[in-house]
Amino acid sequence: MIREARRQARRTRFGKLDVKVSPYLYIAPFFILFAIVGLYPVLYTAFVAMHKWHLINGQGPFVGLQNFIEVLQQPRFWQAVRNTFSIFVLSSVPQVVAAVLIAAVLDANLRAKTFWRMGVLLPFVVTPVAVSLIFGKIFADDSGIVNTLLTSIGMQPVGWHSDTLASHFAIAAMVNFRWTGYNALIVLAAMQAIPRELYEAAIIDGASRWRQFFHVTIPMIRPTLIFVVLTSTIGGLQIFDEPRMYDNAGSGGADRQWMTVTMYLYESGWGPQHNFGRAAAVAWLLFLIIVVFALINFLITRQISSTETKGGKK
């Protein structure tokens, strides 16, 4: 009896310990993996940014914030920042709007729904290098398809590589081609999770399709839209493959008219200077820019949500 009581007490203790410890053990692999492949590289990059770092010789003397100051004093860095923001605005804003509209169409009663849903995801499967090479030919200055069509209707050809804004538009078109369908499927999943009773109640109240879309669909998928906007912001500010492969040189144009921050980072680390310390400083500056924009997006969306909630209560 005593042994049985001890066993029962031991089982009870192990049971309580299991209930307390098991949840942490289940989520521990994610945090361990994140610490190895996410947190450690960020901290190590900060360490590199504080030193002179050469490709061959490795770690040099400690220089503090000197690398950051030198980067901020470079006109080419600010040019890369302007190019990045321009391409980001031209790609992310139309991309989110188009993704919502495509998701709304796919959520309707269409024939062969699976076919259309797979079709919008096909551009995402294509590699960025292939997309960049194809669009580089489509938007070629001399023999591109777009300029051929423009001249056929009596319009002047556009310098898609020589003109700054035109090159940004062409690169944004590549980004939208690849990512619009992917974001559309994410928004579609959120739309399908909306209870159909809400639409039935709206129909009974006499709401049109547009009023159902703006007063039922959009408010219900707001958390998903916030997620899509944040991921689009992060991806848009880190763009590299498309502008890198837009021409054969891969340097961002003759006057660096489409060179992004990530391309400037690559040039700082692997260019003629091989200055890994300065490249690490550029990486951290880009990280801070992304964090600031993510916080701005979060605050704006939270303010909109709280305003609409107060308006609904009134």
Automatic annotation (TrEMBL):
Give UniProt keywords alphabetically: Cell membrane, Membrane, Transmembrane, Transmembrane helix, Transport
- Bilayer-crossing residues are 21-43, 85-106, 118-140, 220-240, 279-300
Q: Which CDD domains match?
A: TM_PBP2 (cd06261)
Matching SUPFAM superfamilies: MetI-like (SSF161098)
Q: What is its main location?
A: membrane
Subcellular location as annotated: Cell membrane
Q: Which PROSITE patterns match?
A: ABC_TM1 (PS50928)
Per UniProt, residues of the ABC transmembrane type-1 domain are 81-297
Membrane topology, as annotated, equals: Multi-pass membrane protein
To which protein family does this belong? Belongs to the binding-protein-dependent transport system permease family.
State the name under which the record lists this protein.
Sugar ABC transporter permease
